[in-house]
Amino acid sequence: MKIVFRTVFFHFLCILIFAIFYYNFQGHYYHNVQELRQTFLDYVLLSTTIQAGVGISDIYPITTPGRLIMISQQLIMIMTHVFTLYFFNL
């Protein structure tokens, strides 16, 4: 049970940390609805969809640093899933 709690906590922490990154680097991302002001909640949604593996959002990267931040979150998510499956099968 401890490993499940740690994994869930790790995912929530990743979502929050990357949402902060996305929010601070807003200029590197394009929002489909430009009339609306982008809020922190929009970037939490982006981070959650990436962390969940869905990857569909109104916001997407338009510069190389933005893409690298998004790729790093996707790689962390993939590695976490692979290691979690590995540890549960021991």
Task: Walk me through this protein's architecture.
- It is a single chain.
- Helix content is 68%, strand content 7%.
- The protein is mostly helical and 90 residues long.
- The chain has a single domain, classed as Helix Hairpins.
- Strands 1-2 form a two-stranded antiparallel ribbon.
- The protein is elongated.
- The two termini are 15 Å apart.
Overall CATH architecture: Orthogonal Bundle
Q: Name the structural class.
A: mainly alpha
Q: Average pLDDT across residues? A: 84
Count of helix runs: 3
Q: Which quaternary structure do these chains form?
A: single chain
What is the chain-wise order of helices and strands? HEHEH
Strand percent estimate: 5-15%
* Overall morphology: elongated
Low-confidence stretches: none
Q: How many E-type strands?
A: 2
CATH topology: Helix Hairpins
Fold topology:
Elements: H1 2-24, E1 29-31, H2 40-52, E2 59-61, H3 64-88
Antiparallel strand pairs: 1-2
Features:
Helix Hairpins, 90 residues, two-stranded antiparallel sheet, mainly alpha, 3 helices, single chain, 7% strand
Q: What would a concise description of this structure say?
A:
With 90 residues, this protein is mainly alpha-helical.
